[in-house]
What does this fold into?
Amino acid sequence: MPLVSTDDMLRAAQAGGYAVGAFNVENMEMAQAVVAAAEKLRSPAIVQTTAGTLRYAPPELFAATVERLARNCSSAIAMHLDHGDAYELALDCARAGYTSVMMDGSSLPYNDNIEITHRVADAMRGYGIPVEGELGAVGGKEDARSADKAAEPAARYTDPDQAAEFALRTGVSSLAIAIGTAHGLYKSAPKLDLDRLSAIRARVSAPLVLHGTTGVSYAVVRECIARGICKVNVATDLRVVFTQAVRDALAASPEAIDPKAYLKYGRAAVQARVEEWILAVGSENKSI
Ligand code: 13P
It folds into this structure.
């Protein structure tokens, strides 16, 4: 089917008490893996690329690849810009065929975050594209490799009252919140502020997004979903799984020279892991 926007997907998840996985991809093989997993489990899925990934290859290439994969898939697939860092990038993605964008102004002062997010949400309305905003600071840095990522101090977690005001003033369709997760690999299991999540959910009706999910146990992710998370972002886990599988394949066949011969192992490993995540977030058989 054609690419869909994240709006209906996330509203259905909110109503149904499950979440939709949003999987970061870096290449064609990872995109194939996500769509194949969604097809197999009849699950909706969000394929997403960061601003950093789009400096490696432009949005037109990812949009065309994923649009073609989605067209041959009977499950609903959305194409999302993850951690968009500029108004122009959101526009580039919209024009390229993305069906959802994030404007991450969370590193800016509060009023500047509202202003840029509102501006992007306004512009995207013309394209029928929903916008995810972010308030508070998710620790670590997306696209970084480091294994020493720590959660931000609690003082930088999302404030529930401010979240309600932010959602109202920006007009976002979904909101990423900071409750103790961090992007990348954790040194030790993170301790999430689940009561804060419930308090935010009580004040914000827009679907809530969990970032920095790699390293959070499936059980804790499920608890977050029970308390109102509707979109679960997974990036580092898939990068690790893909790279390890390719590394193993090359170690087993050092004479290999054909990329197809080893990238297929990365693809298969990512598909298997995405299937696990789909079952963990409860979106199997929920394709709209
Ligand atoms: P992880 O890299 O921890 O999975 O976080 C993913 C994410 O939040 C992407 O926006």
